[in-house]
Design a protein that fits this description.
By secondary structure, the protein is of the alpha+beta class. Helix content is 19%, strand content 48%. The chain has one helix and seven strands. Strands 1-3-2-4-7-5-6 form a seven-stranded antiparallel β-sheet, with no helix packed on it. The longest helix is centred in the first third of the chain and has 22 residues.
């Protein structure tokens, strides 16, 4: 094989590998807990304090004694909440949404879109 053909084969293999990597890579689940710092644009669970999350994704949590939730500037926030009577509810909020709850525990947070 000539050097020119060898170089072309290597370049083609590299391009195919790069393309496969770009196609296979999906969106990252980048949800993370953040310091609320008095900001209202984060998703927040309110209990004896304020527990905030930012970025899209889904996470399993165990936050107890939650009496209110707010969505901040997130387009769609869904939470799985275990109520004090043991029942489970899914609550979905849009931008700027909020809900007062009887004391409950938040188990799953899913944030999509901004």
């Amino acid at each position: 094989m000539t050097n020119r053909k060898r170089l072309a084969a290597i370049a083609l293999t590299g391009a195919a590998t790069l393309a496969l990597g770009l196609v296979a890579a999906g969106p990252a689940a980048a949800i993370n807990s953040v310091d609320c710092a008095g900001r209202s644009d984060f998703y927040a669970d309110w209990n004896e304090g304020e527990v905030c999350f930012a970025n899209n994704g889904s996470t399993v949590v165990h936050i107890v004694d939650v009496y209110a939730i707010t969505s901040g500037n997130n387009n769609s926030v869904t939470r799985t909440i275990r109520m004090s009577d043991g029942s489970v509810q899914n609550v979905q909020l849009g931008v700027g949404g909020g809900a007062a709850l009887p004391t409950s525990g938040v188990e799953i947070i899913n944030i999509t879109g901004r």
